[in-house]
Amino acid sequence: MKIAYLVNTYPRASHTFIRREVQALERVGFSVHRFAMRSDRATLSDPEDEAEDQRTEHVLEAGKLALAGSALGWVLRHPLAALRATATALRLGARAGARARHLVYLAEAAHVAARCDSLGIRHLHAHFGTNPATVALLCHQLGGPRYSFTLHGPEEFDAPQALSLAEKIHHAAFSVAISSYGRSQLCRWSDVADWPRLKVVHCGIEPWRFADPAPLPAKLRLVAIGRFSEQKGFPLLIEALGQAVRQHPGLHLTLVGDGPLRGEIEALIETYTLRRHVTLTGWLPEARVREELAAAQALILPSFAEGLPMVVMEAMAAARPVIATAIAGLPELVVPETGWLVPAGDALALADAIDALAETPLPRLTAMGQTARQRVFARHDIDREATKLALLIRNAADA
User: Fold this and answer.
1) Which parts form a coiled-coil structure per UniProt (predicted)?
2) Is the bond preceding 11 in cis, omega lying within 30 degrees of 0?
3) Up-side HSE of residue 237: CA atoms within 13 Å toward CB?
4) pLDDT, tens digit, for every residue of 69-87?
5) Does domain 2-204+381-398 have CATH number 3.40.50.2000?
6) How far apart are CA 213 and CA 220, in angstroms?
7) What pTM was computed for the model?
8) Quick check: 326 and 333 in contact, CB under 8 A?
9) Are 331 and 309 in contact (CB under 8 A)?
10) CATH architecture for segment(s) 208-380
Protein backbone atom coordinates (compact mmCIF):
# COMPACT_ATOMS: atom_id res chain seq x y z
CA MET A 1 0.00 0.00 0.00
CA LYS A 2 1.37 3.42 -1.00
CA ILE A 3 0.97 6.19 1.53
CA ALA A 4 2.58 9.57 2.03
CA TYR A 5 3.88 11.46 5.04
CA LEU A 6 3.59 15.23 5.18
CA VAL A 7 5.74 17.40 7.47
CA ASN A 8 6.56 21.09 7.36
CA THR A 9 10.35 20.79 7.81
CA TYR A 10 11.89 17.34 7.47
CA PRO A 11 14.17 15.82 8.44
CA ARG A 12 15.28 17.75 11.52
CA ALA A 13 17.69 16.81 14.28
CA SER A 14 14.86 17.08 16.82
CA HIS A 15 12.37 15.03 14.75
CA THR A 16 14.10 11.67 14.47
CA PHE A 17 10.93 10.06 15.86
CA ILE A 18 9.24 10.70 12.49
CA ARG A 19 12.04 8.97 10.63
CA ARG A 20 11.79 5.96 12.94
CA GLU A 21 8.03 5.75 12.43
CA VAL A 22 8.30 5.98 8.64
CA GLN A 23 10.96 3.28 8.51
CA ALA A 24 8.94 1.04 10.83
CA LEU A 25 5.91 1.38 8.55
CA GLU A 26 8.10 0.38 5.63
CA ARG A 27 9.15 -2.72 7.56
CA VAL A 28 5.51 -3.78 7.85
CA GLY A 29 4.94 -3.47 4.13
CA PHE A 30 4.03 0.15 3.34
CA SER A 31 5.61 2.18 0.58
CA VAL A 32 6.01 5.63 2.12
CA HIS A 33 6.58 8.79 0.09
CA ARG A 34 7.96 11.67 2.15
CA PHE A 35 6.63 15.19 1.50
CA ALA A 36 8.06 18.19 3.34
CA MET A 37 7.62 21.84 2.56
CA ARG A 38 11.30 22.55 3.22
CA SER A 39 14.55 20.94 4.33
CA ASP A 40 16.71 21.67 7.37
CA ARG A 41 19.76 20.08 5.76
CA ALA A 42 22.14 22.87 6.72
CA THR A 43 21.84 21.86 10.39
CA LEU A 44 21.87 18.07 9.94
CA SER A 45 24.78 16.17 11.45
CA ASP A 46 23.43 12.61 11.60
CA PRO A 47 24.18 10.47 8.51
CA GLU A 48 20.75 8.84 8.82
CA ASP A 49 19.05 12.23 8.72
CA GLU A 50 21.15 13.20 5.72
CA ALA A 51 20.10 10.00 3.93
CA GLU A 52 16.47 10.67 4.82
CA ASP A 53 16.81 14.16 3.38
CA GLN A 54 17.71 12.60 0.03
CA ARG A 55 14.58 10.44 0.12
CA THR A 56 12.25 13.38 0.82
CA GLU A 57 10.42 15.47 -1.77
CA HIS A 58 10.80 19.07 -0.60
CA VAL A 59 7.84 20.82 -2.15
CA LEU A 60 9.08 24.41 -2.09
CA GLU A 61 12.32 23.47 -3.79
CA ALA A 62 10.37 22.94 -7.01
CA GLY A 63 10.13 26.72 -7.37
CA LYS A 64 7.15 29.07 -7.43
CA LEU A 65 6.38 28.73 -11.14
CA ALA A 66 6.39 24.93 -11.09
CA LEU A 67 4.24 24.83 -7.96
CA ALA A 68 1.80 27.36 -9.36
CA GLY A 69 1.50 25.43 -12.60
CA SER A 70 0.94 22.13 -10.81
CA ALA A 71 -1.61 23.63 -8.41
CA LEU A 72 -3.50 25.48 -11.17
CA GLY A 73 -3.67 22.37 -13.30
CA TRP A 74 -5.24 20.42 -10.44
CA VAL A 75 -7.70 23.20 -9.60
CA LEU A 76 -8.87 23.49 -13.23
CA ARG A 77 -9.54 19.76 -13.34
CA HIS A 78 -11.45 19.85 -10.02
CA PRO A 79 -13.31 23.19 -9.99
CA LEU A 80 -16.06 22.30 -7.51
CA ALA A 81 -13.62 20.78 -5.05
CA ALA A 82 -11.43 23.86 -5.47
CA LEU A 83 -14.31 26.15 -4.52
CA ARG A 84 -15.01 24.09 -1.40
CA ALA A 85 -11.35 23.99 -0.40
CA THR A 86 -10.96 27.74 -1.01
CA ALA A 87 -13.86 28.46 1.32
CA THR A 88 -12.27 26.22 3.95
CA ALA A 89 -8.88 27.91 3.56
CA LEU A 90 -10.41 31.37 4.00
CA ARG A 91 -12.38 30.23 7.06
CA LEU A 92 -9.35 28.65 8.69
CA GLY A 93 -7.27 31.66 7.79
CA ALA A 94 -9.78 34.04 9.38
CA ARG A 95 -9.54 32.16 12.68
CA ALA A 96 -5.76 32.30 12.60
CA GLY A 97 -5.64 35.90 11.39
CA ALA A 98 -3.68 34.75 8.33
CA ARG A 99 -5.90 34.42 5.27
CA ALA A 100 -3.10 35.10 2.78
CA ARG A 101 -0.94 32.40 4.33
CA HIS A 102 -3.80 29.91 4.13
CA LEU A 103 -4.18 30.60 0.41
CA VAL A 104 -0.51 29.63 0.12
CA TYR A 105 -1.38 26.42 2.00
CA LEU A 106 -4.19 25.89 -0.52
CA ALA A 107 -1.74 26.09 -3.41
CA GLU A 108 0.62 23.68 -1.63
CA ALA A 109 -2.30 21.33 -1.02
CA ALA A 110 -3.28 21.38 -4.70
CA HIS A 111 0.27 20.47 -5.67
CA VAL A 112 0.38 17.66 -3.09
CA ALA A 113 -3.00 16.38 -4.35
CA ALA A 114 -1.63 16.27 -7.90
CA ARG A 115 1.51 14.46 -6.76
CA CYS A 116 -0.49 11.95 -4.69
CA ASP A 117 -2.64 11.23 -7.73
CA SER A 118 0.37 10.63 -9.98
CA LEU A 119 2.10 8.48 -7.35
CA GLY A 120 -0.95 6.36 -6.52
CA ILE A 121 -1.00 7.49 -2.88
CA ARG A 122 -3.99 6.06 -0.99
CA HIS A 123 -3.56 7.81 2.35
CA LEU A 124 -1.80 10.95 3.60
CA HIS A 125 -0.52 11.17 7.18
CA ALA A 126 0.71 14.50 8.57
CA HIS A 127 2.81 15.14 11.63
CA PHE A 128 1.77 18.08 13.83
CA GLY A 129 -1.60 19.80 13.99
CA THR A 130 -0.18 23.05 12.61
CA ASN A 131 0.23 23.79 8.90
CA PRO A 132 0.94 20.15 7.85
CA ALA A 133 -2.55 19.18 9.07
CA THR A 134 -3.98 22.26 7.32
CA VAL A 135 -2.40 21.24 4.01
CA ALA A 136 -3.60 17.64 4.51
CA LEU A 137 -7.19 18.79 5.13
CA LEU A 138 -7.18 21.10 2.09
CA CYS A 139 -5.57 18.39 -0.05
CA HIS A 140 -8.41 16.02 0.86
CA GLN A 141 -11.05 18.65 0.11
CA LEU A 142 -9.41 19.25 -3.26
CA GLY A 143 -9.99 15.60 -4.14
CA GLY A 144 -6.81 14.15 -2.70
CA PRO A 145 -6.58 11.06 -0.49
CA ARG A 146 -8.04 10.64 2.96
CA TYR A 147 -5.80 11.92 5.69
CA SER A 148 -4.85 11.53 9.32
CA PHE A 149 -2.45 13.42 11.52
CA THR A 150 -0.42 13.07 14.70
CA LEU A 151 -0.54 15.82 17.31
CA HIS A 152 2.40 16.11 19.67
CA GLY A 153 2.14 19.27 21.74
CA PRO A 154 2.88 21.59 23.24
CA GLU A 155 2.44 23.99 20.31
CA GLU A 156 -0.96 22.57 19.34
CA PHE A 157 -2.11 22.77 22.98
CA ASP A 158 -1.33 26.50 23.07
CA ALA A 159 -3.64 27.58 20.23
CA PRO A 160 -6.30 24.95 19.50
CA GLN A 161 -8.89 27.41 18.19
CA ALA A 162 -6.51 29.39 15.99
CA LEU A 163 -5.32 26.06 14.55
CA SER A 164 -8.93 24.93 13.93
CA LEU A 165 -8.14 21.58 15.51
CA ALA A 166 -11.82 20.65 15.85
CA GLU A 167 -12.36 20.97 12.10
CA LYS A 168 -9.15 19.14 11.22
CA ILE A 169 -10.13 16.31 13.58
CA HIS A 170 -13.69 16.18 12.24
CA HIS A 171 -12.61 15.70 8.61
CA ALA A 172 -9.71 13.33 9.32
CA ALA A 173 -10.09 9.59 8.99
CA PHE A 174 -8.53 9.46 12.46
CA SER A 175 -6.29 11.62 14.61
CA VAL A 176 -3.41 10.43 16.77
CA ALA A 177 -2.16 11.68 20.12
CA ILE A 178 1.18 10.47 21.47
CA SER A 179 -0.07 10.10 25.05
CA SER A 180 -3.30 9.68 26.95
CA TYR A 181 -2.85 13.22 28.21
CA GLY A 182 -2.62 14.42 24.61
CA ARG A 183 -5.79 12.56 23.70
CA SER A 184 -7.59 14.18 26.63
CA GLN A 185 -6.70 17.58 25.21
CA LEU A 186 -8.04 16.60 21.79
CA CYS A 187 -11.28 15.56 23.47
CA ARG A 188 -11.53 19.09 24.92
CA TRP A 189 -11.34 20.69 21.48
CA SER A 190 -13.39 18.30 19.36
CA ASP A 191 -17.00 17.17 19.12
CA VAL A 192 -17.95 14.23 21.33
CA ALA A 193 -19.08 12.40 18.19
CA ASP A 194 -15.46 12.52 16.92
CA TRP A 195 -13.90 11.08 20.09
CA PRO A 196 -13.94 7.43 18.88
CA ARG A 197 -11.55 8.45 16.08
CA LEU A 198 -9.04 9.93 18.51
CA LYS A 199 -6.33 7.32 18.99
CA VAL A 200 -3.15 6.99 21.07
CA VAL A 201 -0.06 5.79 19.24
CA HIS A 202 3.18 6.39 21.10
CA CYS A 203 6.33 7.66 19.49
CA GLY A 204 8.81 4.84 19.65
CA ILE A 205 12.41 3.81 20.04
CA GLU A 206 14.35 1.09 18.28
CA PRO A 207 15.28 -1.33 21.08
CA TRP A 208 18.12 -2.91 19.11
CA ARG A 209 20.02 0.40 19.31
CA PHE A 210 20.13 0.01 23.10
CA ALA A 211 21.29 -3.59 23.35
CA ASP A 212 23.93 -3.32 26.08
CA PRO A 213 23.53 -0.38 28.46
CA ALA A 214 26.75 0.86 29.97
CA PRO A 215 27.12 0.69 33.76
CA LEU A 216 26.21 3.86 35.60
CA PRO A 217 29.26 6.05 36.25
CA ALA A 218 30.25 6.64 39.84
CA LYS A 219 30.54 10.42 39.33
CA LEU A 220 27.51 12.69 39.56
CA ARG A 221 26.96 13.51 35.89
CA LEU A 222 23.69 14.68 34.34
CA VAL A 223 22.68 15.10 30.72
CA ALA A 224 19.90 17.29 29.31
CA ILE A 225 18.87 17.07 25.66
CA GLY A 226 16.63 19.33 23.63
CA ARG A 227 16.10 22.52 21.72
CA PHE A 228 17.12 25.67 23.56
CA SER A 229 13.62 27.17 23.48
CA GLU A 230 11.43 28.67 26.16
CA GLN A 231 9.31 25.54 26.62
CA LYS A 232 12.29 23.36 27.62
CA GLY A 233 13.15 25.39 30.74
CA PHE A 234 16.94 25.10 30.43
CA PRO A 235 17.62 28.54 31.98
CA LEU A 236 15.80 27.29 35.09
CA LEU A 237 18.01 24.20 35.06
CA ILE A 238 21.11 26.39 35.15
CA GLU A 239 19.65 28.20 38.16
CA ALA A 240 18.97 24.86 39.88
CA LEU A 241 22.48 23.70 39.07
CA GLY A 242 23.85 26.85 40.70
CA GLN A 243 22.16 25.74 43.91
CA ALA A 244 23.04 22.05 43.62
CA VAL A 245 26.79 22.53 43.15
CA ARG A 246 27.01 24.07 46.63
CA GLN A 247 26.23 20.63 48.06
CA HIS A 248 27.87 18.63 45.26
CA PRO A 249 30.93 20.44 43.87
CA GLY A 250 31.75 17.52 41.55
CA LEU A 251 28.41 17.80 39.73
CA HIS A 252 28.60 18.11 35.93
CA LEU A 253 25.86 18.76 33.35
CA THR A 254 26.13 18.13 29.60
CA LEU A 255 23.59 20.10 27.57
CA VAL A 256 22.98 18.58 24.12
CA GLY A 257 21.15 20.79 21.65
CA ASP A 258 20.93 24.34 20.43
CA GLY A 259 18.40 27.04 19.76
CA PRO A 260 17.33 30.63 20.27
CA LEU A 261 18.04 30.72 24.02
CA ARG A 262 21.68 29.68 23.71
CA GLY A 263 22.93 33.20 24.47
CA GLU A 264 20.81 33.46 27.60
CA ILE A 265 21.95 30.03 28.78
CA GLU A 266 25.61 30.92 28.24
CA ALA A 267 25.10 34.16 30.17
CA LEU A 268 23.51 32.31 33.09
CA ILE A 269 26.40 29.83 33.16
CA GLU A 270 28.70 32.81 33.67
CA THR A 271 26.39 34.43 36.23
CA TYR A 272 26.38 31.30 38.38
CA THR A 273 30.12 30.62 37.70
CA LEU A 274 29.32 27.19 36.29
CA ARG A 275 31.69 27.12 33.33
CA ARG A 276 33.57 24.07 34.63
CA HIS A 277 30.31 22.35 35.60
CA VAL A 278 28.46 22.64 32.25
CA THR A 279 29.36 21.48 28.75
CA LEU A 280 27.38 22.68 25.71
CA THR A 281 27.77 20.24 22.81
CA GLY A 282 25.37 21.58 20.18
CA TRP A 283 23.30 19.05 18.25
CA LEU A 284 24.86 15.59 18.05
CA PRO A 285 24.21 12.52 15.88
CA GLU A 286 22.17 9.76 17.52
CA ALA A 287 25.26 7.65 18.21
CA ARG A 288 26.88 10.55 20.07
CA VAL A 289 23.69 11.21 22.03
CA ARG A 290 23.77 7.59 23.19
CA GLU A 291 27.39 8.10 24.24
CA GLU A 292 26.41 11.10 26.36
CA LEU A 293 23.62 9.09 27.97
CA ALA A 294 26.09 6.31 28.73
CA ALA A 295 28.39 8.83 30.43
CA ALA A 296 25.58 10.19 32.66
CA GLN A 297 23.97 8.93 35.84
CA ALA A 298 20.61 10.41 34.85
CA LEU A 299 18.71 12.51 32.33
CA ILE A 300 17.26 15.77 33.61
CA LEU A 301 14.36 17.50 31.85
CA PRO A 302 13.14 20.82 33.32
CA SER A 303 10.41 21.47 30.72
CA PHE A 304 7.56 23.95 31.15
CA ALA A 305 5.53 22.38 28.31
CA GLU A 306 5.84 19.06 26.51
CA GLY A 307 4.16 16.32 24.58
CA LEU A 308 6.00 13.13 25.55
CA PRO A 309 9.72 13.67 24.84
CA MET A 310 11.76 11.15 22.91
CA VAL A 311 14.82 11.94 25.03
CA VAL A 312 13.09 10.46 28.08
CA MET A 313 12.41 7.23 26.19
CA GLU A 314 16.00 7.06 24.96
CA ALA A 315 17.40 7.68 28.44
CA MET A 316 15.20 4.98 29.94
CA ALA A 317 16.20 2.58 27.15
CA ALA A 318 19.81 3.29 28.11
CA ALA A 319 18.91 2.26 31.70
CA ARG A 320 19.19 5.78 33.08
CA PRO A 321 16.89 7.19 35.77
CA VAL A 322 15.10 10.42 34.85
CA ILE A 323 14.46 13.69 36.66
CA ALA A 324 11.57 15.47 34.91
CA THR A 325 8.75 17.90 35.49
CA ALA A 326 5.31 16.45 36.20
CA ILE A 327 3.60 17.77 33.09
CA ALA A 328 1.71 16.51 30.03
CA GLY A 329 2.44 12.85 29.22
CA LEU A 330 5.56 12.53 31.38
CA PRO A 331 3.82 10.97 34.43
CA GLU A 332 2.57 8.20 32.12
CA LEU A 333 6.16 7.07 31.60
CA VAL A 334 8.27 8.33 34.53
CA VAL A 335 7.17 6.74 37.82
CA PRO A 336 8.84 6.65 41.27
CA GLU A 337 10.54 3.36 40.44
CA THR A 338 12.28 4.99 37.44
CA GLY A 339 13.07 8.53 38.57
CA TRP A 340 11.82 11.76 40.10
CA LEU A 341 8.97 14.04 39.02
CA VAL A 342 9.06 17.65 40.22
CA PRO A 343 6.74 20.67 39.81
CA ALA A 344 7.39 22.68 36.66
CA GLY A 345 9.04 26.06 37.11
CA ASP A 346 10.54 25.27 40.52
CA ALA A 347 14.35 25.57 40.56
CA LEU A 348 14.54 24.53 44.21
CA ALA A 349 12.57 21.34 43.49
CA LEU A 350 14.97 20.54 40.65
CA ALA A 351 17.94 21.11 42.96
CA ASP A 352 16.33 18.89 45.61
CA ALA A 353 15.84 16.12 43.02
CA ILE A 354 19.50 16.39 42.03
CA ASP A 355 20.38 16.08 45.72
CA ALA A 356 18.12 12.99 46.01
CA LEU A 357 19.89 11.45 43.03
CA ALA A 358 23.29 12.20 44.56
CA GLU A 359 22.27 10.60 47.88
CA THR A 360 20.88 7.43 46.25
CA PRO A 361 23.35 4.50 46.38
CA LEU A 362 24.67 3.40 43.00
CA PRO A 363 23.11 -0.11 43.21
CA ARG A 364 19.69 1.49 43.78
CA LEU A 365 20.20 3.87 40.83
CA THR A 366 21.20 0.89 38.70
CA ALA A 367 18.01 -0.95 39.66
CA MET A 368 15.94 2.14 38.82
CA GLY A 369 17.62 2.30 35.44
CA GLN A 370 16.84 -1.34 34.70
CA THR A 371 13.20 -0.82 35.67
CA ALA A 372 13.11 2.23 33.39
CA ARG A 373 14.51 0.15 30.55
CA GLN A 374 11.88 -2.56 30.94
CA ARG A 375 9.10 0.01 31.16
CA VAL A 376 10.02 1.92 28.02
CA PHE A 377 10.53 -1.25 25.98
CA ALA A 378 7.06 -2.42 27.01
CA ARG A 379 5.39 0.88 26.07
CA HIS A 380 7.41 2.43 23.24
CA ASP A 381 8.79 -0.23 20.89
CA ILE A 382 8.56 1.52 17.49
CA ASP A 383 7.64 -1.63 15.58
CA ARG A 384 4.76 -2.35 17.95
CA GLU A 385 3.50 1.22 17.77
CA ALA A 386 3.89 1.38 13.98
CA THR A 387 1.82 -1.79 13.72
CA LYS A 388 -1.00 0.02 15.55
CA LEU A 389 -0.73 2.95 13.16
CA ALA A 390 -0.59 0.64 10.15
CA LEU A 391 -3.88 -0.98 11.18
CA LEU A 392 -5.53 2.43 11.53
CA ILE A 393 -4.31 3.47 8.07
CA ARG A 394 -5.43 0.23 6.41
CA ASN A 395 -8.86 0.46 8.02
CA ALA A 396 -9.19 4.08 6.88
CA ALA A 397 -8.22 3.20 3.32
CA ASP A 398 -10.74 0.34 3.24
CA ALA A 399 -13.59 2.42 4.72
Assistant:
1) none
2) yes
3) 30
4) 999 999 999 999 999 999 9
5) yes
6) 18
7) 0.92
8) no
9) no
10) 3-Layer(aba) Sandwich (3.40)
